[in-house]
Write a structure and sequence with these properties.
With 194 residues, the protein is of the alpha+beta class. It has 6 helices and 5 strands, in the order ααααβββββαα. Among the domains are: 47 residues, no CATH class; 47 residues; 37 residues, no CATH class. The mean pLDDT is 73.
Length: 194
């Protein structure tokens, strides 16, 4: 390790690259980098043996004209090694490209769609809707004013002094309100809380 550290400053990166590009049995024969990037990574070893192209192969090549980098379809018409001549149908010209600017084009297999089932326009006898049963119309319940609200409204209509509403203590809520009412009673003379 010390020798690696003295000779090469990038030994950590190189060892990590070697680890990440090595197929693992735990990962079912795939590399950690391939699982992460969903493609195999390019290493020095993969550059030693470039992808082989044959004359007549359909390829995608990198077109960098008009300051736009686009992958265009083409067909290999000549060349060898790393430099190839490609007939570009879209450009109507033969271009020369390095093999690292070319990819083998794999046609997408055509899959026929299953025929869609026709939905009948008239309902079938087994799918007939059940007859609608008419129910007598229900009377809408009108919201009733609470007894507390009615008592308070009656006291204010008559012009009487409101000392605070009285509550029915038969319910739990009424007991709570009655306790609050006794604590917060307004006096007739002072108008203050007791």
């Amino acid at each position: 390790m010390r020798k690696c550290a003295r000779d090469d400053k990038e030994w950590v990166q190189n060892s990590l690259l070697a680890y990440r590009s090595t197929p693992s049995e735990v990962l079912r024969g795939r590399t950690p980098a391939e699982l992460f990037l969903v493609r195999p990574i390019r290493t020095v070893l993969s550059l030693v043996k470039p992808a082989a192209f044959n004359i007549g192969d359909r390829v995608l090549f990198l077109n960098y004209r008009q300051n736009k980098r686009m992958w265009l379809p083409g067909e290999v018409v000549g060349g060898s090694g790393v430099v190839w001549k490609v007939w570009a149908r879209d450009l109507r010209a033969t271009v020369t490209r390095h093999s690292n600017q070319m990819r083998i084009s794999q046609p997408i297999p055509y899959q026929e769609r299953p025929e869609q089932q026709q939905i009948p326009r008239t309902p079938s006898p087994e799918r007939q809707p059940s007859p609608i049963q008419e129910e007598p119309p229900q009377q809408q319940a009108t919201p009733k004013k609470s007894a507390l609200r009615e008592q308070f409204a009656a006291q204010t209509r008559t012009g009487g002094t409101t000392r605070g509403p009285t509550f029915d203590t038969s319910t739990e809520a009424g007991t709570l309100h009655a306790g609050l009412n006794s604590c917060l009673r307004i006096g007739p003379d002072t108008g203050r809380f007791d």
